[in-house]
Design goal:
Strand content: 15-25%
Structural class: alpha+beta
Strand order of the largest sheet: 12-7-8-9-10-19
Shape: elongated
Number of strands: 28
Largest sheet: 6 strands, antiparallel
Mean pLDDT: 75
Number of helices: 20
Distance between the termini: 142 Å
Radius of gyration: 39 Å
Length: about 725
């Protein structure tokens, strides 16, 4: 009878070329390509040892040509176990449902040292063997080899299976038994400990693990599933230098949520180490047949974040994008890390620098296709049953809207990513946004009340923008499909009278944020249209100044914008205080042109009161002195300045800062901050001096704008009318 365990040494040169294998024979064995070699049925295991050798030619002149000295072994490369027992092969096939990259051939299972495929599944195989002993004759039952659909060989009975398993177990106990027992003792310590050599016990494929994800100076937990644990070397001289861990997790793609492979390394460390201090560690630990939670708090944290992530992604998939507010660190930013403001979640895309189309943001990590070869010989549904993570492979938008929507589980939440890609509106660039720092956008329907603009004009703007709030297609007067379907506003007038603020208020009322543009104009049209954003081009005269000969670059800019504007199907606001400088072709494409005149004294008082109300509403520890309210309404020091809305805002902001400093430096310091008349008087005096200087130096702003051909304000109109009337009277007197 052949030995149940056979040993063989395979000799290779330094290029891993085969030099010698097995025993030499003095006679020709007569091997042909069609011969089959039978493995004795009594053989359970083959242990193959691969060694690297070197040889030297014998150089004595009388030596025969080609004669050699015996070769010498340079190093032992590795050992490999081949499981030959058909009963054990069938048992592994029945028990192990997930082990990527491990193949099971018809006649053997090949496993490299340290035999992790065998070691990590010994407990389940032993339980399977014990269950088999309760059946008579050939194995049967739901999980028996007979039910796996394997064809091509007969499966032994329970007795043979137990005998072969005992041989395998004896070999494992001899090589690993004491080490495993010692490691289990370390798990029972408080806190549980682990060694580098035995860390594989923590990372069986399919194990739920956690690890840290770093963003700038902060760190965030992530959850994943182990798919591979393998010894690797970062230096050829060291065999056990680090464990390579392939982990799959969920990642947001442009049109789906899919599995992605994430690689982490655990470098060799001496002695023992707390499991919870490892770079990767399991969420639970099996100790004495009991699952012990290592980080229940982190599990709860990931569940909460995962639920929020999927709620956000449902909305993103439903609308194509989602506007949110954000207060946190930006992923992908090297300079300004912190960002507070609105953002549009649009995962997986960003603007190409060479054209106006989208392209996918490619992650460096490959897709995890869950190709586990252990089920490769199974048929149909049985093979699909082996794919344990099928529901996590590709989650499409339709997964949430179909008749039988995807039922999200705790594992979905556990595997969800900590961030979603999107567009930071204030930064005008794409970044990753941490889910924990994302909050729903709150639209302000009352913001229109703060505008100082005639009601009939405001009603017209809100009526025109209303049709863009839903997806229904409005009637188009243009005979060319998709042309002229946008809505363009031009707001013109002197500085600080509310032109830009009007566009922002309309967007707040509509529930979308303006996608401000200061870079290359045409590239942003597709983004604004896709996201349903209101696009604002502030100070439009800078970009669309009247074309003239000899200005090829500026003329090309205006022409390119005109072509893009024709097919833009969104809302566009242009603001300018230099209407006379904008090209006539731009003017002809505007749907509604609204002039903003200088603020009246009554409008200025309303603006002051709005800022007073906002301060009291936003900060309970701030107050406005009643004397200040009377000061801004009636005192000539303020009313004579004729401040515009922007100047009023800046002056009040400065007064608040002075009040904060006064409260801080008072003896004793004051808890309540009161903005007083004295805080604003100094600001008003400096403003009056500066305005007088500018008027003496360059003349009034209205006059300068008129002379430059930029605009005609009311002051200029009145003076021009007075001049015309005087000339008319003079002519009448002469006649």
């Amino acid at each position: 009878m052949d030995a149940p365990i056979r040993y063989k040494v395979i000799y290779e040169d330094d290029d891993r070329g085969l030099v010698r294998e097995g025993e030499f024979s003095a006679t020709d064995p007569g091997v042909t390509a069609n011969d089959s070699i039978a493995v004795p049925s009594s053989v359970v295991l083959d242990i193959l040892t691969y060694v690297e050798i070197f040889q030297q030619k014998y150089t004595h002149p009388r030596a025969e040509s080609g004669s050699e000295f015996p070769f010498k072994i340079r190093k032992v490369r590795y050992s490999e176990m081949e499981i030959r027992s058909q009963s054990l092969i069938a048992a592994f096939r029945a028990v192990v449902k997930y082990y990527p990259k491990q193949t099971i051939e018809k006649d053997k299972i090949s496993v490299e040292e340290p035999y992790l495929y065998v070691l990590q599944n010994m407990r389940e195989i032993e339980n399977y063997v014990e269950e088999a002993q309760h059946s008579s004759g050939p194995l049967d039952g739901e999980n028996s080899p007979d039910q796996t659909g394997i064809k091509g060989f007969e499966i032994g009975g329970a007795i043979r299976l137990k005998q072969d398993f005992q041989i395998l177990k004896s070999f494992i106990d001899k090589t690993w038994g004491r080490k495993i027992i010692n490691e289990l003792e370390r798990y029972r310590q408080k806190p549980p400990m682990a060694t580098f050599e035995m860390a594989w016990m923590l990372f069986k494929p399919g194990t739920k693990v956690i690890f840290l994800y770093y963003v700038g100076d902060s760190q965030h937990w992530m959850g994943g599933i182990i798919r591979r644990c393998e010894l690797e070397s970062d230096n050829e001289r060291y065999k056990l230098s680090m464990w390579g861990l392939d982990i799959f997790r969920l990642l947001t793609q442009p049109n789906c949520i899919s599995r992605r492979k994430y690689v982490r390394y655990m470098h060799k460390f001496p002695g023992e180490k707390q499991i919870q201090q490892l770079t990767v560690y399991p969420i639970e630990l099996l100790v004495d047949d009991t699952q012990v939670a290592l980080s229940a708090g982190i599990w709860d944290q990931l569940q909460k974040r995962g639920q929020k992530y999927f709620e956000l992604m449902k909305a993103v998939f439903g609308k194509g994008s989602l506007e949110v507010t954000y207060d946190g660190e930006l992923i992908g930013e090297s300079k300004l890390k912190q960002y507070t403001g609105n953002a549009i979640l649009a995962p997986g895309v960003h603007l190409n620098e060479t054209n106006t189309t989208y392209r996918t943001v490619h992650d460096s990590e490959p897709f995890d296709n869950d190709e586990s070869d252990i089920g490769s010989q199974l048929e149909g549904k049985q093979n699909e049953r082996r794919r344990l993570w099928h529901d996590y492979r590709e989650i499409e938008p339709s997964s949430f809207t179909r008749e039988s929507p995807l039922q999200l589980t705790e594992l979905h939440f556990f595997l969800s990513p900590p961030n979603i890609n999107g567009f930071a509106l204030r930064r005008k660039d794409f970044f990753g946004f941490l889910v924990d720092a994302i909050e729903p956008l709150t639209t302000n329907k009352e913001v229109l009340r703060t505008l100082q603009i005639p009601q009939d004009r405001l009603d017209m703007m809100t009526a025109l923008t209303h049709r863009f709030e839903d997806n229904s297609k409005s009637w188009s007067a243009d005979f060319i499909e998709s042309k002229g379907e946008g809505l363009l506003f031009l707001l013109h007038g002197p500085s600080g009278v509310g032109k830009t603020y009007t566009a922002e208020c309309i967007s707040m009322y509509s529930g979308t944020e303006e996608g401000g543009m200061e870079l290359k104009l045409a590239k942003w049209f597709s983004l604004a249209e896709t996201w349903g954003a209101i696009m604002l081009i502030d100070e439009a005269d800078v970009y669309f100044e009247r074309r003239a000969s000899g200005q090829l670059q500026r003329n090309s800019l205006v022409s390119a914008f005109l072509r893009s504007m024709e097919y833009y199907r969104g809302i566009l606001f242009l603001t300018t205080n230099r209407l006379g400088h904008i090209d006539d072709a731009i003017i002809s494409r505007i749907h509604l042109i609204i002039e903003y005149k200088d603020l009246t004294d009554a409008a200025r008082i309303k603006i002051w009161k709005q800022f007073f109300t906002k301060l009291s509403k936003d900060r309970a520890d701030y107050a406005v002195d009643p004397y200040l309210e009377g000061f801004v309404e009636n005192d000539e020091k303020i009313t004579s300045l004729k401040w515009n809305g922007r100047e009023i805002r800046n002056a009040f902001q400065t007064a608040v800062s002075l009040a904060e400093y006064s409260a801080k430096t008072d003896d004793p310091p004051q808890k309540q901050i009161i903005v007083k008349k004295s805080h604003l008087e100094g600001v008003a005096e400096m403003s009056a001096v500066f305005k007088k200087y500018m008027k003496d130096f360059k003349g009034g702003a209205e006059k300068r704008a008129y002379i430059e051909g930029a605009r005609m304000d009311d002051v200029v109109r009145q003076k021009k009318l007075q001049v015309e009337q005087a000339r008319k009277l003079a002519r009448q007197e002469r006649e």
